[in-house]
Amino acid sequence: MSSEVSNKKKNNNKEIKEWVLSLAVVLLAAFVIRYFVVSTLVVKGISMEPTFYHGNVIAVNKFIYKVSEPKRGDIIICTYSDVEDEMLIKRVVALPGETIDFMPNESGKYNVVIDGNVLEENYTKDGTAFYGDMEYPYTLPEDCYFVMGDNRDNSTDSRWESIGAIDKERIVGKELFKIWPIE
Q1: With bands split at pLDDT 50, 70 and 90, how would you rate the model's confidence at 179?
Q2: Is 90 among the residues known to form the active site?
Q3: Rounded to an integer, what distance in angstroms lies between the CA atom of residue 78 and that of residue 166?
Q4: What's the CA gap between 152 and 159, in Å, rounded?
Q5: pLDDT tens digits for 74-133?
Q6: Parallel, antiparallel, or unpaired: how do β-strands 110-114 and 99-104 relate?
Q7: CA gap 175, 96 in Å, rounded
Q8: Which entry of 6, 10, 14, 47 is annotated as an active-site residue?
């Protein structure tokens, strides 16, 4: 009888150890995924309307730019200063080595011009009414990206010297999809 009780205790102890180890592995995996692969971000402000609105929650792929380069049109999450906790969500408009300029159009707004070609932008709220205080044409340095909000009249972005081109090191990740609100 006593060996039966002893075996039960050993089995219970073994089961508890396995359960604790499994839980530790799951928590470690969740930590690694959350901090190095995928996270969430709550959109603040109106600079990405109509694509995203204040309060939207998005999933962010934090790993993708470790193995690939941002592309024109990607919606990225980045910092623009040494304040790492201030995250911006913007769209990549121009890539390293490209020259960006702004040319007036017939509507009284400006077309974004990349290397002499007008950029098709069906995602902007009302087009581009101003081009900031940068000197144009502007050629992007190596590993730097020109980013702008989709709500061009209400976006602080690369058009302003205080922000300028975003170095790849400051890009945190790429928007994957909107989590909330569900549409």
Answers
A1: very high
A2: yes
A3: 8
A4: 10
A5: 999 998 776 566 788 999 999 999 999 999 999 899 999 999 999 999 998 777 998 999
A6: antiparallel
A7: 20
A8: 47
